[in-house]
């Protein structure tokens, strides 16, 4: 079939499928089964659904959804090879969009990131002590530091891997954040996007726009506790060295169901590397 026409009837059918809660992958498969060329079907789906979602958001006073990072999972592969490195697909969830990866980093890469950041965590503790301030952020009791993008070879390799895996430009990523949680430390449930209602948000958004995705990679395996939790869907991701949990949010709104936190560490330490992905270039 050539010169396939996307008729108003087809558009309405696509919208009806979406309203009935059918997965876009399944709708695409149906279209291809009935003779639609994959490229034409994809464009028709994307155009129709993005137009519909935009109108729906505007009519209901919601932020308009935007494109988000996403791994290529159309054929439900069990592994993805990125730059010669094999990453396992451990589990996926559609709403909220969550994907757990295995072997995001090798053990050696995890150890290297811990070694490179440990000094700087120690230094930031000294700075806090020297102010004489006893102020503690009770929502986030971990110690943290940021690498700048491409700061060293392991960061650069990791960032290139993330960009290829999630189909998102390397320039749209913030520098990697390293967090260390000691026993009792936690990160209370929160959203990673910047709250549009906060006075400081417009200023933050000037550099790179909103955050649209997060990848949290576990750099070690705590003995007990420290799961990443998604309270809206009662999901707990166990922190396992080298594994990573990815989630995306197409608008800065709780409807994305991406409320998440780091549960208290009970025994041992928990180290993670967090990569936040922005809508635009983060320079
Ligand atoms: O430590 C975790 O499991 C979650 C970390 C997190 O939410 C973040 O870095 O934004
Ligand atoms: Fe977070």
Automatic annotation (TrEMBL):
Keyword Oxidoreductase appears in the UniProt entry: yes
TM regions (residue ranges): none
Single GO term (MF): procollagen-proline 4-dioxygenase activity
Keywords linked to the UniProt accession: Dioxygenase, Iron, Metal-binding, Oxidoreductase, Vitamin C
Names of the cofactor(s): L-ascorbate
InterPro entries on file: Oxoglu/Fe-dep_dioxygenase_dom (IPR005123), P4HA-like (IPR045054), Pro_4_hyd_alph (IPR006620), Pro_4_hyd_alph_FE2OG_OXY (IPR044862)
PANTHER family linked to this entry: PROLYL 4-HYDROXYLASE ALPHA SUBUNIT, TRANSMEMBRANE PROLYL 4-HYDROXYLASE
Entry protein name: Proline dioxygenase
